[in-house]
Amino acid sequence: METTATNPPLRFVIHHLHPTSARLRFLKSPAGRVIFPTPLPALSELLEEYDIPSATATHPAPFLRQLCATLQVEPHELTIVNGFRLWVDTPGVTVPVYW
């Protein structure tokens, strides 16, 4: 599967944790999804375990900047939660999902 601007090799779940309470809100697209920038394809499945091939590891920073531009937010307004990454098996590629 080719990596393009509309088909990046990873996805994001975006949330806002209120700084003075335990309130947690998830950003949803107009279509009601919580996976950005594009939805996962049909038949996607969460993997319980996944060994990362070192040659194919992708750093999320460039894609996070691209997502900020798409959502029209400043880069300092979104950060990646350290240690939170899930792997999803999709037709043709295994996709990391960052929080």
From TrEMBL:
Highest taxon, organism lineage: Bacteria
Annotated protein name in UniProt: Uncharacterized protein
Species assigned in the record: Candidatus Thiothrix singaporensis
Source taxonomy: Bacteria, Pseudomonadati, Pseudomonadota, Gammaproteobacteria, Thiotrichales
